Automatic annotation (TrEMBL):
Chain spans, region Disordered: 1-62, 326-345
SUPFAM superfamilies: P-loop containing nucleoside triphosphate hydrolases
Domain Helicase C-terminal intervals: 349-567
Organism in which the protein naturally occurs: Pelagomonas calceolata
Listed SMART domains: DEXDc, DSHCT, HELICc
GO molecular function, one term: RNA helicase activity
Name under which the protein is recorded: Helicase ATP-binding domain-containing protein
Length: 1046
């Protein structure tokens, strides 16, 4: 495998030389991988030693610290004492002091703490250290807006600061560079001269040409918001940039709390052969209290106090305010869309909440909603309420607003969004979401920071990265539509009760947003208010309030741009990035535990012993085999009898049933779980992503996740079963878990939420069992053939029942050996089979993830002409290397097929908007004009070509979905804009938010610049001039107004 040192040398202008034999070997290896040939086993990973956590409590502020070290780690030599690189006028917290100590030792550190805890202090110290030592330092952030803010903040502290975001480059020779992570990765891919000047981008074994530039001590790279690495779309950028940086760099990672920080630190240590410390604290400088407001109610209910205690009685009181009874969660609302309160009721609730905030003087407050339109509706609903601002504050707002927009043209100042927002701002009410004009959004942020906005209606993006805390946070909703089936969670004994399209907030999302409540040094506590418009189980509430933050799990995936950029470097191995990824590390990390579990199962099997003679062992083996065949046949009969059409009429509330959670619904490798005699509560359709688990914990049944091999059942049943404390608990199981239905029913109270009600039902069940036991009779059961009428309704039932009878006779005729116990033999075989399955999983975990995907993607590149059969990148591939803003394969097809050659600039820009506008196309859009329709059809043809190449290579691509994702809704808008239309006229052509239009145009400008580079790479200078001209035409007015932070 090519070492990353050689990879960086190859990116240099003078590529590392290879002999013809070496080049041939590299190409031969590439071809063999494409053909699916076996490769040599991977080299063993460097050993990593992780120290035990050290927990300290300092003035009630707990700090946990530990470190991951390479096996050959040698502590750095002691340095003479030096003054601190930076000091502050306040005493540092314990976690800050420990992070600073790691930086002083020139060792990497992950700082994990809640929002507003003071993580930025650690980043500032790393920058000060690098500047003191004459090094260059990079500060990366996930989004351009945050980079602009950080640039402004750091400029106030350090004089020599630069900015690089793709749109803007300021002082690129600065010692401290703020940039987006995409820019850093692009520099690493392309071997930028700027990268070479930064010491930490040295080759690990530097070539002679670079060694003089890159000599000297290591420098720092600060990754802000590293938990963004879990982002499904862009997380791959974080991983690749971390992997591609050389071993000499030292990292400072800033993150919200993550439960698997140990795993992340070990990955950094293993990847870069250096120590990585973790400093973690869950201390909140400002404690939070949580209230619930029941929709339609009058007051607030304290559910979590400052000590973190859950007030269950208050929660139950709040639920009672919602009215009505409940038997099981969502029992009578299965499969339906969420029932929202009426618009009038929601507005009334909002005004009551705002009234409480005003009365208690809990402003400033951030009011979160989960859609842009809802944010605006909430704000407009308060337009007639008393102003939050005094007259002098309103005057200041007006002056700031006018000053910020002074550079805009008169037409842009007359935009509806600009004119309608000012009256709200003067009243102390702001709006913040992705649909706002960027300059307007920045004005809102500045006014909020200055205390001139008392109420800010925002989407959850406001809680990501932007550090603007408030005293109060309000959740107008606790369910969220995210367009995808939610992941089931069984943490904290809770399961997610998601209806068809909505799900509860996850604990991680709640932590991220509620963390904006409470300003350090200003508030004695932060206030969090939840508006609930439907009943919630206490276990669900506790899961949200007390659940863990989201894990930092890799979202790594291979992109064609990455593959092409590495293939153009002769001898570079794309497998290096995959094998070095956090995704691969997490998979391999499971292997030792799987092997250990398999070994333990094998020891259990051995402990059971075989015993007996050979003949008896053979007889028992035959007996167990017959028993298993009978069990399988009985399961077939049960599946037939539990079809909804047959059993649903008998599943009335109160019917007794023998409940056995089948083995295939339990955690992997576990046996069936006998739950005993239970009571049917309700039969219903399953909710999307629902985990089959007890509401009160204790029944561990596996969750249904998207992509499961097992089909989702048509119906499930909520049952009441005994718990370990003599009471009863609710569980959700599939219909086949009802091994037998009883002829007996018991009375069911209307509300089973309280433990006392469930205990009464449990006592009734015990009384039924006792009375039949006294008569030495079993509790009567319904007969499938006679009572359920399966003989006449189910064609396959008769044959299945006869097979069961025959297998029972076979089992009776196949006795077990006298000296070998059948149960022990079967248990030993089951343990051995589970151990074998675990060892197979361990072997699979150590295989290269995404290997098949890599092979198939290479086939796609070869089929489309980006790469030759010998693995050499072609001219088309070199052009595609320049493209990463949009689908590089489709754009490459359009470019190399000459589509842009015949289009004028306006039509070309309009066509490219389809690749930059990522929102789903709206139905009923007006037809496109002739030239635009023709260009759009060419785009669809190119997309079809790419999709078919992917399908032919075996990739899971749906051709129709792939082609339809290119959205033409803004083609007319961009056509008019390129031809000189005013922005105000664009808003009349579409109902898209102004901010959405600007975001698409800015992405288009980036794509046009990349296309100009691609045209230059293939020698088409005429086309390059066309793209440069198109970029110049769209780059004007409010769309590219300068940021207020710069």
């Amino acid at each position: 495998m090519t070492d990353i040192d050689e990879l960086f040398g190859a990116f240099d202008e003078a590529p590392a030389t290879q002999t013809p034999d070496e080049r041939g070997a590299a190409r031969k290896r590439s071809r063999s991988e494409d053909d699916g040939a076996e490769r040599a086993p991977p080299q063993p990973r460097p050993a990593v030693r992780v120290t035990d956590p050290v927990k300290e409590d300092e003035r009630g502020r707990n700090v946990t610290s530990f470190a991951a070290y390479p096996a050959d780690y040698a502590a750095p030599a002691p340095r003479p004492p030096r003054p601190a690189a930076r000091t502050w006028p306040f005493e540092l917290d314990g976690f800050q002091r420990r992070a600073v100590a790691c930086i002083d030792k020139t060792e990497s550190v992950l700082v994990s703490a809640h929002t507003s805890a003071g993580k930025t202090v650690c980043a500032e110290y790393a920058i000060a250290t690098a500047l003191r030592d004459g090094q260059r330092v990079v500060y990366t952030s996930p989004i351009k807006a945050l980079s602009n803010q950080k640039f402004r903040d750091l400029q106030e502290i350090f004089s020599d600061v630069g900015l690089m975001t793709g749109d803007i480059t300021i002082n690129p020779q600065a010692s401290c560079l703020v940039m987006t992570t995409e820019i850093l990765r692009s520099m690493l891919y392309r071997g930028s001269e700027l990268v070479r000047e930064v010491k930490w981008v040295a080759a690990r074994r530097p070539s002679v040409r670079l060694s003089t530039q890159l000599a000297g001590p290591s420098s720092q790279v600060v990754y802000d918001e590293i938990h963004y690495m879990r982002d499904r779309e862009r997380g791959v950028v974080w991983e690749e940039s971390i992997i591609l940086l050389p071993h000499t760099v030292r990292f400072v990672f800033l993150s919200a709390t993550i439960p698997n920080a140990r795993e992340f630190a070990a990955w950094i240590c293993q990847t870069h052969r250096q120590a990585c410390h973790v400093v973690y604290t869950d201390y909140r400088p400002t404690p939070l209290v949580h209230y619930v407001f029941a929709s339609g109610g009058e007051g607030l209910h304290l559910v979590v106090d400052e000590a973190g205690a859950f007030r269950e009685a208050n929660f139950e009181t709040a639920m009672a305010c919602l009215g009505g009874g409940a038997t099981a969660p969502d029992a009578d609302d299965a499969g339906k869309r969420r029932r929202r309160p009426s618009g009038r009721q929601a507005e009334t609730d909002l005004k009551r909440i705002v009234g409480v905030v005003r009365q208690q003087q809990w402003q400033p407050a951030i009011v979160f909603a989960f859609s842009k339109a809802q944010c605006e509706r909430n704000a407009v609903a308060l337009k007639d309420e008393p102003s939050f601002n005094a007259p002098d504050e309103a005057d200041v707002v007006e002056k700031v607003y006018a000053s910020a927009l002074e550079a805009l043209s008169d037409d842009d100042k007359a935009l509806p969004q600009v004119t309608t927002l000012l009256p709200l701002l003067k009243r102390g009410i702001g709006i913040h979401h992705g649909g706002l004009l960027p300059i307007v959004k920045e004005v809102v942020e500045i006014l909020f920071q200055e205390g001139l906005l008392k109420l800010l209606f925002a989407t959850e993006t406001f809680a990501i990265g932007i550090n603007m805390p408030a005293r109060t946070v309000v959740f107008t909703e606790t369910r969220k539509f995210d367009g995808a089936p939610p992941r089931a969670s069984q943490r904290s004994g809770a399961f997610r009760l998601a209806r068809a399209d909505f799900r509860w907030l996850t604990a991680g999302e709640y932590i991220q947003m509620s963390g904006r409540a409470g300003r350090r040094g200003k508030d004695d506590k932060g206030i969090v208010l939840q508006v609930l418009d439907e009943k919630m189980e206490p276990a669900v509430a506790k899961g949200i309030l007390y659940g863990e933050a989201d894990r930092l799990d890799s979202s790594y995936h291979v992109t064609y741009n990455m593959l092409l950029n590495l293939l153009r470097v002769e001898g570079a191995d794309p497998d290096y990035l995959v094998r070095s990824s956090f995704h691969q590390y997490q998979q391999e990390a499971d292997a030792p535990a799987l092997v250990a579990e398999a070994t333990a199962l094998e020891a259990q099997a051995e402990a059971l012993g075989e015993g007996g003679d050979v003949a008896d062992a053979a007889a028992t083996k035959a007996h167990v085999a017959a028993r298993r065949r009978l069990a399988a046949a009985e399961a077939d009969v049960l599946a037939l009898s539990r079809k909804p059409a047959h059993c649903l009429p008998w599943l009335q509330p109160g019917r007794l049933a023998t409940v056995v959670a089948p083995a295939d619904w339990a955690p992997t490798g576990a046996a069936a779980t006998a739950l005993g005699l239970g009571v049917v509560v309700a039969a219903r359709k399953p909710r999307e992503g629902e985990a089959f688990a007890s509401v009160d914990a204790g029944v561990a049944c596996r969750a249904l996740a998207p992509g499961d091999a097992d089909p989702r059942p048509a119906h499930v049943v909520d049952v009441l079963v005994a718990d370990d404390d003599g009471g009863a608990k609710l569980a959700c199981v599939p219909l086949v878990a009802l091994a037998a239905l009883s002829a007996v029913r018991v009375f069911m109270p209307p509300d089973l939420r309280r433990p006392e009600a469930r205990a009464r039902v449990r006592r009734a069940v015990d009384e039924v069992a006792r009375r039949f036991a006294e008569r030495r009779e079993a509790v009567p059961e319904l007969d499938d053939a006679r009572d359920l009428g399966l003989d006449g309704k189910e064609a396959a039932y008769g044959e299945a029942a006869r097979r069961v009878a025959a297998l029972r006779a076979e089992l009776a005729a196949t006795p077990a050996g006298a000296t070998v116990d059948a149960d022990a033999f079967e248990a030993r075989e089951a343990l051995a089979e589970r151990a074998r399955a675990l060892r197979r999983r361990a072997r699979d975990a150590q295989a290269l993830v995404l290997r098949d995907e890599l092979r198939k993607m290479r086939k796609v590149l070869r089929a489309l002409g980006h790469v030759t059969r010998e693995g050499v990148i072609a001219l088309k591939g070199r052009a595609a290397c320049e493209l990463n803003t949009a689908d590089e394969l489709v754009v490459g097809e359009l470019l190399m097929e000459g589509v842009f050659q015949d289009l004028d600039a306006a039509v070309a820009v309009a066509l490219l908007s389809c690749l930059c506008h990522t929102e789903k196309a709206k139905e009923g859009a007006p037809p496109l004009r002739g030239a635009l329709q023709a260009a759009y059809e060419q785009l669809r043809a190119a997309a079809t070509t790419v999709a078919r190449a992917c399908v032919a290579a075996g990739l899971p691509v749906d051709e129709v979905e792939y082609v339809d994702r290119f959205n033409p809704d803004l083609m007319e808008v961009l056509f008019q804009w390129t031809n000189g239309a005013k922005f105000v006229d664009l808003t009349k052509l579409t109902d898209a938010f102004e901010g959405t239009i600007i975001r698409v145009i800015r992405r288009l400008d980036e794509l046009l610049r990349q296309l100009a580079s691609a045209a230059f790479a293939v020698g088409n200078f005429e086309l390059k001039a066309k793209f440069d001209d198109a970029s110049a035409k769209i780059k004007r007015d409010i769309v590219f107004a300068a940021s207020l932070y710069l």
